[in-house]
Amino acid sequence: MIAKIFEMMYAGFYQPLVRGMLCIALILAARTATAQISLGNTDGRTNAISTAVPFLRITPDARSAALGDAGMALSPDANAVFHNLSTLPFSRDERSVAGSFSPWLRSMASDVYLANLSGYRKLDENQAIGAGFRFFNLGSIELTDFQGQTQGNVRPSEFSLEGGYARRLNEHWGVGLAFRYIHSKLASGAKAGGSGSYRAGNAFAGDLSFSYISTTEEEEGTGTWRFGAVLSNIGTKISYSKDVQDKYFLPANLGIGGSYTYRFDGKNSLALTLDINKLMAPSPDTVDTNKDGTPDYRQKGLLSGVFGSFGDAPGGLKEEFQELMYSSGLEYQYDHLLAIRAGYYNEHRNKGNRKYLTAGFGLKYKLAGLDFSYLVPAGGAPLNPLANTLRITLSVTW
């Protein structure tokens, strides 16, 4: 069943993806296998939220990846399209394009990767437009049925195409609006439970972002405060079959972030940033009021699922706070030529338990830029499929 795939995919962003486990048996499982967790309250038990297309929540660029995945309140660059579009009118550069690449789960598979392109252009001092493309390739996977019979090979992949407009409202405030098309091809053509076959899923979503910036003169330098708030991936549910109940929520998210940059002089600066995120998707539960074999949380409508996510956790308010994810980072820059970065990401053990340290650097020469990041697991997990994840970004700014 597709639902089980998403549960697996979200745990560490495709954490238990050991090639065949992604789609082989689970994608052909019956619908009755969708709810395996018995929940009255959390009581310390794992209850991670799973959604469709979780690749949309993977940090695509090396700069933010090196800062513990923080990006909503950074000084704007081409990848602000993915993090906070509303910051673009405040950019000191007129236009920029960037491309990023990351081998994904390299310890488990050699042909899984995430690639993306992004860019923006300022129309004038108060307006900017941006666009982005993300492609997630899951390699080649052999499908089998319950008897172990080969059903052929598939090459699952997903992509999103997005564009948006941002406007500076005044000296301090900015707002951005983006729209996104999402295509997910996990097991097209494979037989579904009962009759029919799975097909590619399509969805549409939007982002609404806000930003605030304020610069003050300090005793020995200049300080800049930045704040951002983003509602992202608010859109239609996605389906992989003709079954009206087989529709899945997108990884809608509410994020807020802040940063403080202190410029010691004309060349040296130090920035501290913090993001807090919460998925706006229903918390898993086994309640099945109409006894149709599908948990009620999966049958919620778009609005009730998204906005009801702030009070639907089986464990109550305590579990709701466990769903918060924290990204923090520190960035030193020298004359906009060299950047050194470090960060930390933390997620509650009952909600995915992703904890890792990040580090990276950035170089810029004239129009060209190079950014690199590296991830090291934290928290004592014996095996983390995200270990040693690398990301590289090339950019041109003018």
From TrEMBL:
Residues 46-285 form the Type IX secretion system protein PorV domain. InterPro entries: PorV (IPR045741), T9SS_OM_PorV (IPR047799). Gene3D superfamilies: Outer membrane protein transport protein (OMPP1/FadL/TodX) (2.40.160.60). Pfam families: PorV. NCBIfam families: PorV_fam (NF033709), T9SS_OM_PorV (NF033710). This is Type IX secretion system protein PorV domain-containing protein. It comes from Chitinophaga terrae. The lineage of its organism: Bacteria, Pseudomonadati, Bacteroidota, Chitinophagia, Chitinophagales.
